[in-house]
Amino acid sequence: MIDLQRRRARVSGVDMAFIEEGDPENPAVVFLHGFPTSSFLWREFVPLFAPWTHVIAPDLLGCGSSGMPEEAELHIRAQAGYIRELLAGLGVDGFAVVGHGHGGGIAQLLSMDGGVEAMVLVDSIAFDAWPSETTKALQRSAPEHQRADVVREAFDAFFEQAIAKPERRTDDLRDAYVAPFLGEEGVRAFFRGIDAADGLGLTGREDELATLSCPTLILWGEEDPYLPVEVAERLNDAIPTSSLAVLPGCSYLLPEDAPETIAPLAFDYLRSKYLGRPHSHGEPGVVPIQLERRPPGA
C-alpha cells in the first residue's frame, strides 16, 4: 500500500495530522475523509493530483493520526471550523474540495460559507439522510460495551457493507483503518465520533445549496446501503452546477471499491473545471468523461 508522510499543525490547541504534497504555489485541493476512516482513504488520489495541485489531506480531529482530545467537539460543524483554521495557517484561501461521507458534509458547509471554487462529493451525507440506523444503534451502546473488541466487530460489519467487492476487503486494509481506534484513547475516540454524528448542520439548507456557483461532481456507489442513490439525485437537483455519476457494483466506500475509476474521474473533472486545463491524451491514467445535468423532468 502507498504510504504517505504526514505533517502536523496546531488547530484549536490540538495536533492535526495532514498529508501535504505538491507545490504550495499550485491551486489547492483539500481531501476530506469521513468517519470512521482517515486520510489513508485518499492514498490513490494524492499521487495523481500532486504534480498539478497543492494537495492537503487532513485526518479529522479524533481520527487517524490527529489528536483525540476529549474536550474537542467532533461534529461536522466543528470539523469545518478546524479545516478553515488549518487552511488559514497554510495560507490557503480559495480551494477545491473532495469529500467522502461526513467529509462530504463538511465540504458542503465549507462551500456554503465561501472560498470553495470546485467540489467533488463522494457518497456524501446530506440533508436529513444521516446518521444511519447502524450508527444510531452504536450511539445507544452502554458504557460497558464501549470496548476494543466491539470496535473491531463494528469495523468488520462496516467493511462487509461498505465495500461491495470482496477482494478489496483485505485484513491489511481493515487493520489500517481500525488501528487508530484501538487502545483506551482510541476506543473513547471511536464512540465520541459515533456520538458526533448528530444529524445537524445540513437539514433545511436546500436554498443555500441552490445558490452555489462552484462546479460540483457527485460520485455515488449504486449499492450504498447507508446513503441510497436517491440522496445523490436529491443533491444533484439541489445544486444547480452539479453533475452526477453513479457507479454500478460499488458501495459506500467508493474510493476503496473503485479507486482506479473515480480518482481519474475526479482529477479530470477538477482539471477542467478548476484548473482550466483541457484533457490531453498524452497523459496516462486519466479517463476523459462527459457529464451533463439531466434534462428537467427526465
Structural account:
There is one protein chain. The protein has helices at residues 46-49, 76-89, 102-113, 133-139, 148-162, 171-178, 183-196, 206-209, 229-238, 254-257, 259-273; strands at residues 7-11, 14-21, 28-32, 54-58, 95-101, 116-124, 216-221, 242-247. The chain is α/β, with parallel strands linked by helices. It has a domain at 7-129 and 198-273: Rossmann fold (3-Layer(aba) Sandwich). The protein has an eight-stranded mixed β-sheet with strand order 1-2-4-3-5-6-7-8, sandwiched between helices. Helix 2 (76-89) crosses helix 3. The longest helix has 15 residues, at 148-162. The protein is globular. The model is unreliable at 281-298 (pLDDT under 50).
SSE topology sketch:
Elements lengths: L6 E5 L2 E8 L6 E5 L13 H4 L4 E5 L17 H14 L5 E7 H12 L2 E9 L8 H7 L8 H15 L8 H8 L4 H14 L9 H4 L6 E6 L7 H10 L3 E6 L6 H4 L1 H15 L25
Parallel strand pairs: 3-4, 3-5, 5-6, 6-7, 7-8
Antiparallel strand pairs: 1-2, 2-4
